[in-house]
Every structure is written in C-alpha cells, then in structure tokens.
Amino acid sequence: MMLVVYVSVLLVLFASIVSTQSGQGPYEMEVWNKDDQPLWEQLSTLQEEMESLRREQAILKHKQKALDQMLIIDENVTSLKQSGRPQLFSPPHLWLNEGDEDDEGDGIPNYDPCFRYSILDQAWRATNYTTKSVKCDRQVRWQGWYRLYYRGKSIQMPEKCIPENHCGTHSPLWLTQPHPNIRDGVVTRKMCGNWKKKCCAFQSNPIQVKACRGNYYVYRLVRPTACHLAYCADVNTLVCGRCSSNQYCTSRDRITYRCAARKKKIKKQVIHFFASYPGSLKGKVNRIRFSKVLVNVGAGFNKQTGVFRAPVSGVYQFYFSSQSGGSGGNATNLWLVINGYWVSVSRSDVKTSASIGSLSTYMTTLRKGAQVYVTHVTGQSWADSASNTITFGGSLLMQRRLK
Ligand SMILES: *[C@@H]1O[C@H](CO)[C@@H](O)[C@H](O)[C@H]1NC(C)=O
Ligand SMILES: *[C@@H]1O[C@H](CO)[C@@H](O)[C@H](O)[C@H]1NC(C)=O
Ligand SMILES: *[C@@H]1O[C@H](CO)[C@@H](O)[C@H](O)[C@H]1NC(C)=O
C-alpha cells in the first residue's frame, strides 16, 4: 500500500518537473526544491529512486513468500496469528548490507541468514514433548532459513541422540556434529533420526547451519528422508538464549548448557616514539629531556620528563644515539635505564679532538607501566636544533599478556 502511494507521489513530482520545464510557473519547482539542478540530474535522481523502489518491492515479495510458508508450516493458522509474534524477522536497516549485491538473478540479493530467517516456534518440537499424534517434517515445504523458538524463547537443535517418540514424532532428528562458531560461517551438518534404540537408524538429509552474533543459530531446513521424522528443539539449550553479548553458551556433555564469559580480546595497540635533544650536553645529566618530539604514537613518551612509560605489556625495541667529541680525552657514556636499572650503554672514547657518532639498541619484554629513559653519565655530546644527533626512540613490536 505504502509502495503504491510512494510511487504516485514520485510520478506527480516527475510530472511537475516536466511541466515546469515546458514554461509553467515556478511553484512546482519549489515543491521539488532542486531548482538549481539541471533536468537530467533530477531525472537520474528519480531513476535511482525508482530503482530502489523496485528493489524494495522485490524484497517485499520475498518476505510475503516466506510468510506464506510460515502459514503452511503450522496447520493451525489461527493460533499462529493470535500469537502476535513476528513470523519473519528482518529489520529494514539490515536489508541492504554492504557486499549484498550478489544477486541470484531474480533481483533478490543474498542476505545474511542471521538477519533473514523464518521463526519456527512449535512447542511439540521440544525434546521433552511426548505425544501419540505424530508429525512428519517431510510434509512441510521447507524454504530458506529458520530460527528455532520454544514458546517465544530462542532455542537450539539437540547435538545428542533423543529418545524415540519425542519431539512430537516417531524418530527425532538430531545433529551428529557440533554447532559451528561464528567464524565458520555456513556449515553443512548431518542429521540422524533415532529409532528402535539405534541413534542413527535414519540418516536424514544434511542441513546447513550458521552461528549468529547474539548466541543463536539459523538452520536451512530441508525435507527429511522419511516419515515420521521431525526436527527437534532441545529444551536444555533454552539457557543459551539468556546469555549476554559478552558470554557464550557451552556444554561438556551436550545435555546441560551454561553461559560462560568470553575471553577478552587484546585490543591492538600501536606504539612508536622518536625524540631528540636540540642542544649539547656536558658531564652528568641524570635524565635527558628529549624535548623535540617527532613521533609519539600511543602517547607513551613524556617530553617534560624524558621518560617513556609502556602503555601496554609486550616486547619493545629501543634505540638511542649520541655524537661525542671535544671532551679532551674523557669518554662519553650514555645509558638506557629501565625501571631504575642501567641496561645498555652507548660509549665513545676518542683520544683526539675528533668526534664520533654512536647508536645503541636494546630489545626487551616490558610490563605495562615500565619506565624507560636515557642518562648522560660522563663526557660531552653535541647536537643543535636541526642535527638530531642525540636521540631516543622505541616501538612496541608485539603485545603480550603478562601474568
Ligand atoms: C488451534 O488453536 C486453537 C486456539 O489455540 C485451539 O483451540 C485449537 O484446538 C487448535 N486446533 C488444532 C487442530 O490444533
Ligand atoms: C519441557 O521443558 C520446558 C522448559 O524447561 C518446560 O517449561 C515444560 O513444562 C516441559 N514440558 C514437559 C512436558 O515436561
Ligand atoms: C675530563 O674529566 C675530568 C674529571 O671528570 C674533568 O675534570 C675534566 O674537566 C674533563 N675534561 C673535559 C675537557 O671535559
């Protein structure tokens, strides 16, 4: 209905543009409010709109098809309608995702089944449901992806053999392999039906399964090989629907399930710094204040104090340089100091008045908060504001969790 209205509005607008161009008053142009654009541009905008409408229409048709399918699944149409729950979950903002342009030829893009599935909420599918009236999923026209519910709560298929005459059928179907992880994408899983104490008396047709963010799964169901086979909803997995987003659902025996905290991912840090001292140094300088900062990615270096403080734990590489000379026979010693320990020296000992450059490097594993600086112990180092001869730099090579 909305679609029809929208199309007619567009057509009226289109007509107004055309009539304005053929010498009518400016009133209609103000309605369109794009009067400083040339006609061809307005037309192409219109064309785009029409294209997106056509697309939307195709999606609606698709959706209607899925809805019709839902009604076929449950013969009790009235009770389905009365349930008041949506039968197809597909939030509009997820309809046109990036990378969804992969058309199948019918104008319907391939959507992520995590956001495009039919809800299958039939209490008789529960693993604890026993009944004399038996259902057969071979009589259902399965189409596309389904998410299992039990009385409005998200639920999963069993991964363990279910006793016969459960799940509202003779031979309950169960997954012989575990559910996938999110990174696995769409996987194929074998289905078995238990009958006469044989857990795989029926090897039914395999189905596709996908894990979704939010602790649920979607299943691409197909007609089973025989009657009476039916897909099951494992009531033990109801707890999984209550796991929060930073939890996952786990089970050792595939009977009892529980929510467990997800391991925190290390946030990837990038840390690099490089600074120089813009003047000359003589004799003892406890901590060189490298005031000219060229790079300080990750803000680990403080130019007021000359101290680098490790923002995260990991493997770091440092380097420091000097240019010494004219110290009248005295050696020039610079030390790299980590947490108060002198760990690496840059030493030059030239007897003549010549000058010499020196570069030292050091690599080590540091804890978060470790403090690193350079001390000038003896001698004389030369630099000016442009020479960058007395320098101190470092990089985080690899982040590492330390106990
Ligand atoms: C259909 O649903 C209604 C309302 O819940 C119920 O009274 C009726 O018995 C159901 N019919 C069948 C065939 O299950
Ligand atoms: C099956 O399990 C559900 C969830 O635990 C429970 O609400 C329901 O009463 C059970 N049904 C039977 C027949 O035991
Ligand atoms: C060399 O070192 C000695 C002792 O530390 C000091 O007295 C002297 O002034 C230094 N010479 C120069 C040229 O810096």
**End-to-end gap:** 63 Å
Total number of domains = 2
Largest sheet: 9 strands, mixed
Helical element count?
4
Describe, in plain words, how this protein is organized in 3D.
The protein has four helices and 23 strands. It folds into two domains: 79-85 and 111-261, no CATH class; 272-399, Jelly Rolls (Sandwich). It is elongated. Strands 1, 2, 3, 4, 5, 6, 7, 8 and 9 form a nine-stranded mixed β-sheet that branches. β18 (332-338) and β19 (341-348) form a beta hairpin. With 403 residues, it is an alpha+beta fold. The longest helix is centred in the N-terminal third of the chain and has 35 residues, at 39-73. The chain has helices spanning 2-21, 27-32, 39-73, 77-82, and strands at 88-89, 117-121, 145-150, 153-154, 171-175, 186-195, 198-212, 216-220, 229-231, 247-250, 258-261, 272-277, 281-282, 292-297, 301-302, 307-309, 314-325, 332-338, 341-348, 355-366, 371-378, 380-381, 390-399. The site of one 2-acetamido-2-deoxy-beta-D-glucopyranose has 3 residues, from loops.
Describe the structure using short key phrases.
single chain, 403 residues, alpha+beta, Jelly Rolls, 9-stranded mixed β-sheet, 5-stranded antiparallel β-sheet, 4 helices, binds 2-acetamido-2-deoxy-beta-D-glucopyranose
